[in-house]
Task: structure prediction
Amino acid sequence: MGEKFYLTTAITYASRKPHIGNTYEIILTDAIARFKRMQGFDVHFCTGTDEHGQKVEDLAKNEALKPQQYVDRVSSEIKRIWDLMGSSYDTFIRTTDKYHVKTVQKIFNKLYNQGDIYKGKYKGWYCVPCESFWTDNQLVGGKCPECGREVKKTEEDAYFFRMSKYQDRLMEHIKNNCDFIVPKSRENEMINNFLKPGLQDLCVSRTSFKWGIPVDFDPKHVVYVWIDALANYITAIGYDPDNPSEEFKKLWPADLHVIGKDILRFHTIYWPIMLMALDLPLPKKIFGHPWLLSGESKMSKSVGNVIYADELSEMFSVDAVRFYLLSNMPYAQDGSITYENIIATWNSELANTLGNLVKRTGDMIYKYFDGVVPNPGIEQELDKNLKDFAMSAFEKYISLMDSFKTADAIDCIMSLARRCNKYIDETAPWVLIKDESKHEMLATVLYNLLEGIRFISVMLLPIMPTTADEILNQIGNPARTFESLKSFGSIKSGIKIKKPKVLFSRLDEEKKLKEIEDKISANNKKSTPENVITIDQFSNVELKVFEVISCEKIEKSKKLLKLQLDGGNEKRQVVSGISAWYEPEELVGKKVIVVSNLKPVKLCGELSQGMILSADISEDDVKVIFVDKSVPNGTKLR
Result:
């Protein structure tokens, strides 16, 4: 085996199904892993799911599930999508895995025992979606500076990690290792925004929720997300503070962490400092990739612009989605995805350039040589130019892929495909066949085209593994290693190729967009309950706050109470079926929510001018929704 190469994605938070922006990272990392394997490296590719935290606990509660049941479902869905998209990971870790839980507790204990973790009290603001604490000065407009959502005031006992103790050492490491954080703009951001202003000690435990790894010597506390989640990179390969495995000794330090730019701070500051405290080497490189935007906006379920990888792959294909993402995401700036752009890429690059080249070449070999690879003869200047172009494209491709510039690397591949198509027009095989004296020249042209297609396909193997493999099988299953691309001419003459098939049929944009629109509409209908209402329908319901002035039982009924209500500028009577759960005197003075524009009705001969909102706890338990006394009578709710 060759030299080891250990690379990871950030583990995906098991809160909801990942959208295409989340999925980009696994596809990018998979392309790098496949590329490194083809270079001869002994690759270990790790990914997984981050499953603890308050957000998961809250989501599980909302669905009346235990947190473990909730994350089992979501983690399974994430793994299904990763597998669907062709990711060739070696380890899929879950932070609920028993070995991970045990090791995280050991790590916490070790840091506490050596004085790097201490107990204190946290006061500040907490953002549940980001799982981040903020001071007053860090808030932007009173909201989370990262996601813009509401934060809540928090005060609780907590354990803290002494970040400042290692700040100078980390600054020195970054200074001495210029490629530790890439792109360079990400490094500058971390230094200027976080390290130079000075690091605060990091809160590393919580007591306000229970769904986490318990601190075994203080079980009221659970280990907070950053030690729990970040430690996966070492626990997944057998780290143990007391007895690290042979695999860990072989694979660590990581050669590459691939992460989104939004979690750069945690991976380039918190994680390296944690490793320093554990006396472990730091990862060699951390690549903070940009975001994939939906059009011009960040994907958000609330905005309604979310695209999912499995649905997109069904509309196009897995390889087409991989190709689009890897060819349209810049190295440092955010990329964009729209259905129109996917169709345009499909037609221009996959159908017209790549698919057309493979089909034309195969058709001509069948038409002129009965499908048998011809023996190349005389080499002319055009032939030499094509060979030089192919060799140069491969060299550039290797350099760009080594720098994780996949879009530029793919452009090199497609430039070669375009050059091959131009070569067909320049040599005009349909003219050469008419002149017996030029048949040797024709044989050379078609041989060179097949070899050019081989170069293209081998370079595409990390990007579009299924399509590249199909093309190589179609042209006679020739050599498919990077080593074989160091010279032009590996295809054996005399072998028969398979009859060419259409790889990518050209799409009618208007027809395809209509098909996509219909599919999205059908999916929305499937996922939408029959009893949903529109915002306009909800706006027709008028909710107001009323105070109960008096209340009495209705003699003719065991269920009904008659309430006199004060709505500020109006008084009204409401009859409510809550006698089984409330005595009249319990309700007097309470403020309730009333559907105030409900058509009046008579119940047991008594006029009822509205309906009081209550919660059905169970068949045997109903609770009236009370309003804080500070809310004025007559206040409208919306």
Summary: Residues 175 and 382 are 49 Å apart (CA to CA). The mean pLDDT is 93. The radius of gyration is 32 Å. DSSP finds 21 helices and 27 strands in the chain.
